[in-house]
Request: fold
Amino acid sequence: MSADALLSRLSGVKSTGPGSWIAKCPAHEDRNPSMTVRERDDGRVLVHCFTGCEVESILGVVGLEWDALFPPDLKADSKPGVRHAFLEADVVGAVAIEALVVATAAANLAHGVDLSLEDRARLMVAAERITVAVRESGYASA
Reply:
């Protein structure tokens, strides 16, 4: 499959470069694009939702199976759940969003504004996402 078969089933699709797009994730209510799609040179299609939706969920919503992400000659060797690297720009963009959440909470606290339970929960999600991004990047110090 080419990425076109997936992209045609998504909304809010915007090209971010050759073989790379962002789109609204169909597996959750998405106001702004939070999902990346990349088509690799070997024909594999990589999908990642930065809010944490599983690829199986995304594919299920759009009516595709795992094998749709692999060209015919790679399907025999493909295994679901294998982690793939993503464009550094996509990861940096996602971390920037989470950093904005942290900065907003810090500014509110500095001005004496108490955080609601919902705000505190979102702050913890941001911290976890930043931690995962650092750990997965290989830059985490021992």
